[in-house]
Batch of 4 targets.
Target 1
Amino acid sequence: MSSVCFYFQVHQPFRLRHYTVFDKTSHYFDEFKNASICRKVASKCYLPTNRLLLKLIRKFGGQFRVSFSVTGVLLEQFHKYCPEVISTFDALAQTGCVEFLAETYYHSLSYLYSRSEFADQILKHIAMIEQLFGLTPRVFRNTELIYNNDIARTIESMDRFDGILAEGADHVLGDQSPNFVYSPPDCEKTRLLLKNYRLSDDIAFRFSNRQWKEFPLMADKFARWINHVNGNGQVVNLFMDYETFGEHQWEDTGIFDFLSHLPYEVLKHPDNNFLTPSEVIERYPPMGVIDVPHIVSWADTERDLSAWLGNAMQSNALHEVYRLEGLVKQAHDEQLMADWRRLQTSDHFYYMCTKYFSDGDVHKYFNPYDSPYDSYINYMNVLSNLRKRCLETAAENTARSTA
Amino acid sequence: MKVFMLGWEFPPFISGGLGTACYGLTKAMSNMGMDVLFVLPRAVEASQTTHVRMLTPKPTAGGQELEYTFDELHNVRFLAIDSMLSPYTAPEQFKQRLDEVITLKRTAEHTRPEQIEQDAAGTHHYAGDMFTEVHRYANAAVKLAMEEDFDVVHAHDWMTYPAGIAVAAVTGRPLVVHVHSTEFDRSGEHVNQMIYDIERRGMHAADRIIAVSHLTRNIILSRYGVLGDKVEVVYNGVERNGDTRFIPRSGIAGDEKIVLFLGRITMQKGPEYFLMAAKKVLDEMENVKFVMAGSGDMMHRTIEMAAEMGIGQKVLFTGFLRGEDVERVYQMADLYVMPSVSEPFGIAPLEALNHDVPVLISKQSGVAEVLTHVLKVDFWDINEMANKIVAVLKYPPLQLTLREHGNFEVRRLRWQDAAEKCARVYSDIMVHV
């Protein structure tokens, strides 16, 4: 049996507006830019792909199944800028063939800096998914698939999840295959699903690359590769950015045609099926324990934290934003809290990466800054203002309580 | 390959980037094994420094000339033509300078009448105005060239173009003109028509034009009517002189930040934008001083401007710096700013990076094309300039990251590569001869 497990990540940050040291306003986010990008991606990707998936789900009578994780910050943007997208996700949820996963509402690196924030953000995300789609997430994925044994243990202790996703990186797997279900060490209930990065990236990155020896990638060829897993694997985990469909791979590459033919080609082989992550966990017992003492992620070639913590600016910015946690929570101000949390989104630190600055492609997609230095300067100026607001609010509160 | 190069000063007699560029390029060519005959204008003085080994002073009809070599440049021979030409003097100032020099020579402190006669005689050949001097210089260069053997002529910036054209014509060798700056960079829209004409004639007479950046190349194509395939871009490099010695800071308080402007204080370099940004920075933070190291035709006006803006106490003017003083000022600086209005290339930021100083440069500069680990700003955007200056001074991680990456990046900007590119240009045009 070869089960294909699709997982799509759906996310956009609240990008900051240009903010100098002289700016005093508490409006930090570039509404216009965020709205344009949101609507553009909706029209090129979210809406057409959602509609295509709905069509395929209905056509194959329940045999075609997929999963998503949609971040809280993007759901907020849908509400503000293009609510029709939510109704397409809702339609997908109602088919019963689509699973929604949980993650941190703000797509943050909070696990590394504040366990309480981490937990609060997950609960907030679950609440929103339940409210919008009437579904309760049972599988967790951390921001950008950042994972290690400790994270698994933390998730296990939350007692809400059956499984967690991670990158099937070579240095994690050794000579084991990502095409099985595993267990993290010391975990009874939580199961581990590992991304098959070769097959996932064939679609997400190589699909339109004419220099690739497998170009052009047709649905039947890909289905044959899936079939090869039969006999030495149980599940093929295809985890990718949803923007693959229409944005990273434009419509004229044929990516939508590929997707629309794929279910047929895969299901042609009677041993194959499509499963959601929960269904995979239910069907296949774990093949063994995978030990991941050091953090892995699905970012860049290094598959580690260097995309967000590779230089002094990034670590300083992250340190400073989490240093404000106490102050922000004491202020008891909803707007302040929302602003502070939106500043935790991992993208802000991703923009400060100097790793590939000379030739960075992926980092530059939708990157509103000309240079990582500009993004750090901007971010720190905003943070300064936020800190000032916190202190002012704290002073007011003290004044009021002593009055 | 033998090159007849018409250029400018050599260390230690440098007054700006042009001299630095000529030195860097010539040294790299010498190291590659190319023979360079370097002709430069030099008002002859009685004594020279020890860097220079005098061969034979050749008094000729064109005026006294000197021939010398530098120990470190094995394949380079220098010929100095006695001339008042200097790359940074505007035509109006030329006459003034000329008068000054002649007066100086005539009132020198010796009493023997023959001496006075001799010295005065040495000035009789200077032309009264700059343009005539340019052509007299061309004459003298041709006379020198006729006694030499070489494969190609390479002329740096407009004053040498007539000499280049003349030498190339008389010897039948191909001509390369090297554009380090144009009249539009130096004078904005109020170009001097005669200088423009000389530049244009030089570019059209040349077999190939070398521009120091794409910025400059674009100006050449759009303003001088030159065709694209005639213009090559060869970026300047920077000299790496090994480890910079650590010289302790003195005279400035420990926690006081220093923002440095190092260059000629002239319109092209945007000194007024530097001051306006400084004012905004000082409104935001106190413990910072702005150092303007250099001299130039706008120096007095700039000093006045600083006083008028009420920041006179916070802006220090050092005058022109040389040698160890340059090292010292880089050691002290927390940030180097180049707010140039139009900078064909800009070697100074590279030197700053070499000295571990983070850099903020104007986007309207050629060097912005080759550097990524620097801060960039439009020269007129004072708000953003001040914003970036404050950020560097306020956030140590920013300074640290810029320093590390910038220092690393500047290592790949080598004169070696510039010299190799020039050699390729020479081969191209020699084939067609």
Target 2
Amino acid sequence: MTTVSSAGHTRRDFLYIATGAVGAVGAAAALVPLIAQMNPDASTIAAGAPVEIDMAPIADGQIVKVFWRSKPIFIFHRTKHDIELAQNVNVASLPDPAPDSERVKKGHEQWLVVIGICTHLGCIPLPHEGNYDGWFCPCHGSQYDSAGRIRQGPAPKNLYLPPYTFISDTKIRIGEESTKSA
Amino acid sequence: MSGHSTYSPQNKFLQWFEKRLPIGGLIHSSLIAYPTPRNLNYWWTFGGILSFMLGVQIITGVILAMHYTPNVDLAFRSVETIMRDVNYGWLLRYLHANGAAMFFLAVYIHMFRGMYYGSYKEPREVLWILGVILYLLMMATGFMGYVLVWGQMSFWAATVITNLFSAIPGVGDTIVTWLWGGYAVGNPTLNRFYSLHYLLPFVIAGVVVLHVWALHVSGQNNPTGIEPKSDKDTVPFTPYATVKDGFLIVCYCILFAWLVFYIPNYLGHADNYIPANPAVTPAEIVPEWYYLPFYAILRAIPNKLLGVCALFGSIGILAFLPWLDTSKVRSARYRPLFRQFFWLFVIAAVGLGWLGSKPPEGIYVILSRIFTFYYFAFFLIVLPLLGIFEKTKPLPNSISESVLGAKA
């Protein structure tokens, strides 16, 4: 390439820089669809719409598993005993402190709705197992209680809560948070 | 490679790297300092355009492959999912489909340039033959890509083209069954076409490397057809050819963008939006426009085996061009008689393309036969004889003289 030794830029310099700048903008713009296409497409997003679950058939003490956005959701119809165990815990001693009232919706304390994915490395914990009246994860031994909170093992966090709202006493819509205060 | 590199990096790291893998020197000698004839016109930019289009096809193709399903029950639907659901899927699909058309347009211009200026002549015979191989690979890739859509045209094109091999006496039917992987075009066929369609573009990329290597051994041809004699006849590839190629690529992209954003289905066939139906053949089967001349040649011959031979022969004959043309003069600029026959050849080729889109009846058949005759006569009769009888114009003394006049 010819070098410009004297002070003062030539017209050629301006053309090179201008062309380079426009080319860089064009290349960046061209990159946008190539990268965006890997994001979830419209049909996947549509399939992730909220699901309505009728919980009336779930017996006292029973845990069922449903799917929302390809994630397993545990729905635990807690007995009075399960609720007592969950409430009578020293919250400060928990690895991820949270009172039972923050894990359920007001007036519906017998229903625990949590995402059934171990917060350690993603396995699905086994229901009615472990020492805490909750779940036991077979992959690395994490144990959760009847409020889905981590009590023992390598998992750092409590089982996550999905957005959900009660549309009747026994029906919930998972994927939608209620507009009223919890 | 011949000659020592003039590349000496200032940067310490680049010096260290260059001692171990001299890729900097390779890029410098092939793309930056490379001596390029100073009189190249815009017909010489199509090699760069072809490389660009190959890149576009590979990038859009690999991305489309993330969303496509190669199963007879799911393929058509997956293409529609790409068009309707995938983010920018419509853009990627139209880029890829119209990109194939732009790829073929560029290759035809590139080939006609080679024929006009005698770029196939000694010492560039292997370069030309590598080009013919690239063209055949492109045709195979394009055909298989079209089948993947699994529309009516896809399915029946697959049936017709694979059935061509049944014309081979004796082993024909065995070969066809082997190609199909079944008793008719079906899921095994679709799956293997998908695998090969993904593979061949990378084979093309490899042969392109050989093609450019062969080119760099002989050096580029130029509009006068006489070799560079001194440094005055050439300029460094960068910035001259780089910018010229870059400019034409941008212009080419304008044409490409016009197709993709305004008339993306113009070159396609509406029947390919109908899912494949193995029980019903559409009333009018036509391949994509870039195969039409050969389709016309196939239909012009009334005999099945001879028609297939003419089809493959019309492409294969290109490989013999360096030996069929006996003239010592390279460029058509100095061959007035050859020039006329050449343009007649272009008319015949384009005419055959138009005729390939017409139903095989009446005047269309007669014209197809006339043009097919001229197509083969050009290679087998005209070119060998012209070298003996043509009175060529006097050649200039050097490239720089032809550009700058006698005062060079």
Target 3
Amino acid sequence: MENILEINSLRKEYDNFTLNNVSFKLPYGYIMGLIGPNGAGKTTIIKLIMNLIRKKSGDIKVFGTDNIENEIDIKSRIGFVYDIPPFYDHLTLNQNKAITAQFYREWDQDLFLRYVNDFDLDIKAKFKTLSRGMKMKFQLAMALSHNAELILLDEPTSGLDPVFRRELLDLFSGIIQDEKKSILFSTHITSDLERIADFVTFIKEGQIVFTDEKDSVLESWGVVKGGKELLEKEEASMFKGIKKHEYGFEALVSDVSQARKSFSTSVTIEKPTLEDIMFFMTSKNGGEDA
Amino acid sequence: MLKLSIKDIRIYWFTYVVNFLFWTIMAPAAIQNPDIYMMLPIGFGLLIIIIPLGNDIRDGRDILYASLPIKRRSIIAARYLSSFFLAAAASIWLIILGLAIERFLPGLSGKISDSLSFESILILAFIITLIICIYLPFVLKFGFGAVISGGIAITALAIAGFWLGSSCLISLNKGVPGIETGGNGSLLDSLSGIGIFRNLSKIMEYYGRGISIFIIILVMIIAIIISISISIKIFRGKEL
Amino acid sequence: MRIIISNSSEDPIYEQIIKQIKNQIINGELTEQESLPSIRKLAGELGISVITTKRAYEELEREGFIDTVGGKGSFVASQNKEFLREKKMKVVEEKLTEAVSEARMLDIGVKDLKEMLNILYGEEE
């Protein structure tokens, strides 16, 4: 599997936040979800890939080449969808398209119109009159109409209704069918990734907690429930994000087989959702054992 | 690059039309004094640059262009190109308008054509060029807050500086043939600004027309080169 | 071909796919040489990860149920009669193994189990 995106030891420093030692890979033809709480660094990573901000150190390779050395060529092959759409409010969709599309050498007008039609957009409408969902759809139509191979989306589904979110995910599945395109999208709505993501990268406070095949993550992590007396045991150190309640506790473990070995039938171990993982890992004692 | 320069017109054409109308209406008011009239293009040119620039910066449009397959330095170069183009268009329009008013409504105006000459147009271009060369990097560095206040400050300073400087220059050169200062040529008289452009042209003629023109153009070119280099450097390092 | 994924099942999704395809091959719903959807098409249709379907197909191939020909796709492997019968036996054997271990845990002896089997078969008749 060749990698469409390779990030190595990426570092970016701000006054009160540092992105540290971020590394992950995304092969051609797959979907990766970048999850993490707000402020974890997801947008920072996307901005670094697009060279909107400068890295302190580390490597970013897109399509096999350095993202700064080959910036122009790479950008012509990337479709981007930002959290805040960067288009002109007082212009119509068509006018916005006209300004942007002229810079893409492989702009496909027919394809664009097809998306506009599928997404039910009125290209004569002024951009500012659109709802958040419509604005996102327009960005997406733009991003998909110049034969982009890597689609980067920053929080594309937040603020959207569940129906559209589902449709969007189906759209993503369709896009990667030819094995030549990949999608990276950041989100804090993990349920969206549960189904279609092939890979998941979890970032918290600027550090990668894990990056792996989604299936592997969901198989090796687990939600453990048991009686509070178990927390006294030494093996309890494997519990992350312990939540105690009146009648017992809940916690997360990153290695379910190890948990089974240490605790066997004294605990219930359940398959986690990505949301569970995020929830437990971002609570008080969930951090350090990452 | 051309596409980038033209984009502002496509986007902000309505603003430009409003500007044109505004200044067209202002023109007859100023036209009594040809020298003040010759300064109008400075205000007009600047306003026409500020508004789209300000909007773009406030709304973060740079993020859009920086995400497209465009080099950052092209974005800057295009901005200079469109700024100069717009300022030139504004100036040409006002000059033509002034001449037209003089020709068709002679009662309203003073003698624009007296102040108008190759030299005075060159001086105008010089001032505008310097303003743009200082303004663009300034705004780039200090962002939206500087767009309007910076623009007004720089223009005011430029006009004041020009006025004062020229008056001094004229006063110092009152012996030069053809200079008319409307008094006994002291600095105070020069400050009235009467015939400022005419006088400057005479001075230039006196010291050698060719040389003066050459020096002015040379300074303009150097200013542009330095300014663009600074702007590109600032923009290259800008975090968006 | 029919694949129904349950998100609430204990079985991981790839295992559900494996089981269902296996069963359909064994009971003849999917015939020999019949072509299967590509892993990407299946993933797209089911709205799941490509890696999941890939894994399912790889496992099915390992167990001899399907063949994947590069460039052409995946097909139900030729099943000889013996092989098929063996597979069917295996399915039942797995279920019986589960039953036996449950029985042991609950202290039910082999005689009771045999009786239960008879009754159950009798019911089917």
Target 4
Amino acid sequence: MAEASNAQPLHRQLGMTDAELAAVVDELGREPTHLELAMYSVMWSEHCSYKSSRAFLSRFPTQAPWVLVGPGEGAGVVDIGDGMAIAVRIESHNHPSAVEPYQGAATGVGGIIRDIFSMGARPIALMDPLRFGTLDDARTRYLFEGVVSGISGYGNSVGVPTVGGEAVFDDTYRGNPLVNVFCLGILPTERLVLARADGPGNLAVLLGSATGRDGIGGASVLASQSFEAGDEAKRPSVQVGDPFEEKRLIEACLELLDAKLAVGVQDLGAAGLSCAASETAAKAGAGMDVDVARVSKREPGMNAVEALTSESQERMLAIIEPANLDAVLELAKRWEIRATVVGRVTDTARFRIYDGLFDAIGVPGENPRPPIGDEPTPLNSDALPIADVPVESLGDGPLYHRPVARPATQDALQAADPGPQLRDKFPAGADLSAELLALLATPTIADKTWVSRQYDHQLFLNTVAGPGADAAVLRVKGTKKALALSTDGKARFCRLEPRTGGRLVVLEAARNVACSGARPIALVNCLNFGNPEHPEVMWQFSEVVEGMSEACEALGIPVIGGNVSFYNASGDDDIHPTPVAGVLGLIDELNERPPAAAVRARDDIVVLGAIRPELGGSEWAAVVHGLDGGMPPVADLERARAVHDLVATFVREGAVTGVHDVSDGGLGVALAEMAIAGEVGMKVELNFDGCTPAEACFAEPASVVVLSVDPQETAAVCGQAAAAGVPARVIGVAGGDRLIAKGAFDVSVADATHAWRDALPALMNRPH
Amino acid sequence: MTARIGVVVFPGTNCELDVEYAIQQLGGHTERLWHGDDTTKGVDAVVVPGGFAHGDYLRTGAIARFSPVMHAVGEHAAAGGPVVGICNGFQVLCEADLLPGALQKNAGLKFLCEPAALRVETTSTALTNLAEVGAVLNVPINHFEGNYVCDERTLAELQADERIVVRYVDNPNGSLDDIAGICNAQGNVVGLMPHPERASDPLLGSSDGIVLLKSLIAAATARSTLLV
């Protein structure tokens, strides 16, 4: 296999097409050097250039008065008042995690944290939406365990709490798990910085780890190609994380920005130094000279290509004025991090790489000591650049309008409605107790404490509601405000009807945030899809983007950042289209903890919203009964907005004692989860027009929320709902130690609790 | 004169902001102590907070004990000054021989961040002087290496001299004799794995740690009065 690939021309080995090479030759007016070609190959990769998705992403609404920084920067930033701003970003680290789960996940965490503090924000929260195959597979258990350990090992040590996330299990991810990482940071608005290399003569200082051979070609080889069996051979493309280095980098960079010693800061992520240096220069309309001899190398014999494209972790590039160099070096020394001047901003609009020039012509700083085994680089004041390209051309990759086609199988898939079969199997009067317990024990629904207890979710003393809540709630110290965060995805809905699915993903995240009393102020998305060279995948992509955009517009939520991950497939099997939405909500005044997703004894139980027999894509139909066709639930955007506003108002006014949204597993599971959390039973009747008891229990209609209400407040709550045009029905009352829905199920709270709580530990503690 | 509580920061420490915030909310005064400085700046009490000092590389606390500030902390302790090590700080104090024993990996070989019920076993210490023996406090743990071990003779001494400060009601990590925290013979040096600062506000779910932090402030105040 190695011989075959060596026979390929260099550009193809680097993942470039013949047409892309021709475009480079056209740009330069000559054949590129090896170094130039290597830089173009990573910068023009799918991962860095968004060449297949850019044409669609402009659809997202991105404007709102409170948006300070929208898509295209290290992170999106919104103003929350009181002189404070919030930076958020979401990213995928799917393929590295499939190859090496611990380091893949760990470096995903490290990378996104750097994006946040490069804006001047202190990272204060992580969320991890994770998707794996089913846990009956030993390799999947190994991947799941490794990814969770990697997040725990890196996140805890670097000192950023993981306050929530998801763990979803579906066979579609068996060969290609999804590891998405969301990070939030907080900053005084005045500290906001952008990655700009302004000012010719300014210096580019490389901070942090020495540069090694790890992660070379990570963006082009791992992230931008399909996965095959035996891909362990790509392990050298996975980086290794060092959270201790990153912790010192965070503190040093924030001190640097507080002291106003840096003009701009950019992290080194995909495509390493070549990307960071050229991007900062291009954004400022400037040029940049880099001397590769100034790069601190980890091992001998590294060539310029390796030094420029390495994705070694824990490195940042700071653009500083020469007069501040001594102060920057002193600060770096105190935090025990490397700092070397590797570049100089020019007014040439060219990105030029030299080897051994800077020392010869007196650029401040000095060459670092070479690794043992290497000779010092000879000085040469007449050295010619070993790469010399227009700085804008690297970031200005090709733009593809890939063919789009609705899958031929889509009609048949949608026609395979699970409703009739399940109606036959579970007619009115059927005992659904075993069905409910089975649903509570499916790994996607079951208790995730096995995961979340491995994460520090409390550091910084902000976590008012943590893992397991509908939304994580973080107080903002020094203000009355609080933030609500939720990440959600629902790939089965998107597979059945991607536009509706895209809407439903946004609605669920926004609904969760509303359940904590917040109003949504920003959304970031991580779009995980299959091979964009498949027209069916591009159709799914375009439809999902459209659906998410429609929902964001209807709810007034600006999209302030995102990430696209293509090539999620094993062989020719593309994963289900899996957009994940991260919604940030703001609570203007938080005086006490928002109500939990629990019922309180003697309270009335109220269902807000319309229950419909929508079983397509539901956990019950697809996972418990293997019927994965049909249509997803209706996504009525106007109704959603009304329900969200109403619920948030109830929570803010203290009108309810418990609140939980209906999602995976439907109303039956929502009620059971509230009984488990409240440690009290209930007696309810589930008579909804057009629904059998089974459909009322396990359908997953959108925009439905369950409330626990003090009986004295019930009339007022229902009155407010009626005024808002939202259906509200009292379905029963909390009490006793059994969970009883008349004519549907009757289980003890203890049994429900065991089913829900024991499922994941039982699966994970079995021998590999 | 107002008592000052020093908070030690090593590279990799991450609970310093939380400890300072919680103490300040209770009216205490804090002062940052940098690991590279061989001084405690004349503070009345010292907290070695949680985190991952020097990345926990080699072994938790193994490198931190050699930081210059630990020499000064040792002198402060020898002079009777209150010293409290929380989580990683407890591990550092054990490595620095200010407390006996060691913390090894949790019995389940997993990191654990969860609430823990602690029973107060003695009030003759810098961290429990305002608490009541037998009181059960809900204070979170957050560690991978919290499984306390020591030799039999040390354990017998700890038991006989009432130097076990807090015990887990439901042992989460395999600690010997359910030990969650211990003190030195004088009671002025205390180490514990749970985080009192994380239980200092009802908004965050528990305020049971306040009595411990107030005890520390009281010990610092007593010390400052003594020195004046």
